[in-house]
């Protein structure tokens, strides 16, 4: 019986000890939880704001008057680190607003752009027809401005007294034993006075004086000036006709000076003309003109295009499509670029998850890709969506301004 009482007393004591331990543990847990809650509740709120319009501050929580969302508190202990390396943002906000990043890559920028162009005459095929001696018009052939002519087409018949006189001198010297030098001098005088070569050869062959001469078109083309009438006197300065060649023609377009170094060969150009949407027009030659338009900062590119069937008319609208590639460069999505007008920046994400603004320099942009030369390294992560959230948070915390001050300080030290 005594043994039973001892065992019973031991059980009671053990139960009391275990209960005491559990009570102490529970009290410590509850106390720690209360302490954590009190600590959290003691965080000082500076103000409340709408992330979509961070420049407006509110002194108490509630619904945003701008968007259908709750106001967000701004705590005094947020982003209070002394480093200017970046900012941190509540992960819940990051997730809710769909913030996305992409890696900086290295590759060729595919540049494709369609530029308005226009068709013009080939100025290398332009002639001015003159008599080069005084006379009068015997006949004007039925032609006018805009007519097509072939090489050798008669334009006018004229009589030139000086040519008649020089022919007489040639025949006299030839019949009276003139020296070869004298005879050659007379023929050269006729050539310089404008007498057609065909008529000079006819004079030598027939030894007959000609009084009526036909002025002919020297090239194929279109008449762009022609205003003589039968019976008119003609001076040596008078223009008989102006003729402009039509094959090939020129197609000209203004390209940005920043892409001039990307233009390398004619295979980069595609020509299309609205008047003939189903036809292609291969480029024979091309060149960049030497001057830059000071207002538009563009260069004129001139393309020579075959026009044997004369479908292309001067003054027609055309389009020049450029298809070219840059050398290998660092590439980022264009939507990641923040352009303030004074500087270009991106928001990067560092290894610690901080959002860090960085200054960049964009060289070219095409097909939603931007090529840069400074500010980033291959493999860096840049923010491509949700930039307004980063921008608003950065403006609230002053991270951008801290970063600029740090850059200035680094530049000053590097100068020394």
TrEMBL record:
<dbReference type="Pfam" id="PF25967">
    <property type="entry name" value="RND-MFP_C"/>
</dbReference>
<dbReference type="InterPro" id="IPR006143">
    <property type="entry name" value="RND_pump_MFP"/>
</dbReference>
<dbReference type="GO" id="GO:0015679">
    <property type="term" value="P:plasma membrane copper ion transport"/>
</dbReference>
<dbReference type="Pfam" id="PF25919">
    <property type="entry name" value="BSH_CusB"/>
</dbReference>
<dbReference type="InterPro" id="IPR051909">
    <property type="entry name" value="MFP_Cation_Efflux"/>
</dbReference>
<dbReference type="Pfam" id="PF19335">
    <property type="entry name" value="HMBD"/>
</dbReference>
<dbReference type="GO" id="GO:0016020">
    <property type="term" value="C:membrane"/>
</dbReference>
<dbReference type="InterPro" id="IPR058790">
    <property type="entry name" value="BSH_CusB"/>
</dbReference>
<dbReference type="GO" id="GO:0046914">
    <property type="term" value="F:transition metal ion binding"/>
</dbReference>
<feature type="domain" description="CusB-like beta-barrel">
    <location>
        <begin position="248"/>
        <end position="325"/>
    </location>
</feature>
<dbReference type="Pfam" id="PF25954">
    <property type="entry name" value="Beta-barrel_RND_2"/>
</dbReference>
<feature type="domain" description="Heavy metal binding">
    <location>
        <begin position="47"/>
        <end position="74"/>
    </location>
</feature>
<feature type="domain" description="CusB-like three alpha-helical bundle">
    <location>
        <begin position="162"/>
        <end position="211"/>
    </location>
</feature>
<dbReference type="GO" id="GO:0022857">
    <property type="term" value="F:transmembrane transporter activity"/>
</dbReference>
<dbReference type="Pfam" id="PF25869">
    <property type="entry name" value="3HB_CusB"/>
</dbReference>
<dbReference type="InterPro" id="IPR058627">
    <property type="entry name" value="MdtA-like_C"/>
</dbReference>
<keyword id="KW-0406">Ion transport</keyword>
<protein>
    <submittedName>
        <fullName>Efflux RND transporter periplasmic adaptor subunit</fullName>
    </submittedName>
</protein>
<feature type="domain" description="CusB-like barrel-sandwich hybrid">
    <location>
        <begin position="127"/>
        <end position="244"/>
    </location>
</feature>
<comment type="similarity">
    <text>Belongs to the membrane fusion protein (MFP) (TC 8.A.1) family.</text>
</comment>
<dbReference type="InterPro" id="IPR058791">
    <property type="entry name" value="3HB_CusB"/>
</dbReference>
<keyword id="KW-0813">Transport</keyword>
<dbReference type="GO" id="GO:0060003">
    <property type="term" value="P:copper ion export"/>
</dbReference>
<dbReference type="InterPro" id="IPR045800">
    <property type="entry name" value="HMBD"/>
</dbReference>
<dbReference type="GO" id="GO:0030288">
    <property type="term" value="C:outer membrane-bounded periplasmic space"/>
</dbReference>
<dbReference type="InterPro" id="IPR058792">
    <property type="entry name" value="Beta-barrel_RND_2"/>
</dbReference>
<keyword id="KW-0732">Signal</keyword>
<feature type="domain" description="Multidrug resistance protein MdtA-like C-terminal permuted SH3">
    <location>
        <begin position="330"/>
        <end position="387"/>
    </location>
</feature>
């Amino acid at each position: 019986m005594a043994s039973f009482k001892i065992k019973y007393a031991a059980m009671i004591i053990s139960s009391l000890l275990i209960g005491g331990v559990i009570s102490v543990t529970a009290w410590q847990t509850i106390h720690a939880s209360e302490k954590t809650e009190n600590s959290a509740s003691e965080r000082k709120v500076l103000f409340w704001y709408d992330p979509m319009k961070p420049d407006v501050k509110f002194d108490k929580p509630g619904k945003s008057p701008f968007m259908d969302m709750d106001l967000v508190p701004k705590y005094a202990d947020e982003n209070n680190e002394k480093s200017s390396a970046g900012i941190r943002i509540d992960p819940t906000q990051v997730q809710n607003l769909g913030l996305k990043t992409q890696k900086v890559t290295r590759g060729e920028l595919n540049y494709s752009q369609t530029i308005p162009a226009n068709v013009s005459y080939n100025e290398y095929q332009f002639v001015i027809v003159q008599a080069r001696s005084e006379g009068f018009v015997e006949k004007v052939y039925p032609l006018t401005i805009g007519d097509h002519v072939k090489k050798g087409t008669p334009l006018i018949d004229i009589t030139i007294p000086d040519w008649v006189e020089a022919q007489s001198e040639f025949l006299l010297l030839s019949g009276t034993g003139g020296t070869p030098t004298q005879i050659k001098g007379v023929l050269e005088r006729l050539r310089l006075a404008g007498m057609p070569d065909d008529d000079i050869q006819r004079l030598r062959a027939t030894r007959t004086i000609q009084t009526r001469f036909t002025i002919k078109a020297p090239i194929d083309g279109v008449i762009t000036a022609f205003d003589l009438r039968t019976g008119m006197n003609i001076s040596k300065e008078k223009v008989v006709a102006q003729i402009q060649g039509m094959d090939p023609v020129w197609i000209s377009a203004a390209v940005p000076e920043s892409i001039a170094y990307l233009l390398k060969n004619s295979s980069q150009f595609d020509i299309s003309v609205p008047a003939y949407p189903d036809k292609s027009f291969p480029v024979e030659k091309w060149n960049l003109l030497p001057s830059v338009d000071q207002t538009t900062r563009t260069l004129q590119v001139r393309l020579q295009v075959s026009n044997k069937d004369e479908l292309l008319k001067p003054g027609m609208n055309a389009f020049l499509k450029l298809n070219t590639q840059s050398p290998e460069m660092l590439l980022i999505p264009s939507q990641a670029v923040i352009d303030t007008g004074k500087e270009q920046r991106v928001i990067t994400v560092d290894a610690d998850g901080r959002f860090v603004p960085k200054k960049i320099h964009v060289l070219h942009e095409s097909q939603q890709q931007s090529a840069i030369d400074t500010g980033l390294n291959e493999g860096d992560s840049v923010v491509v969506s949700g930039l307004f959230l980063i921008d608003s948070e950065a403006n609230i915390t002053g991270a951008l301004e801290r970063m600029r001050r740090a850059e200035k300080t680094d530049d000053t030290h590097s100068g020394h």
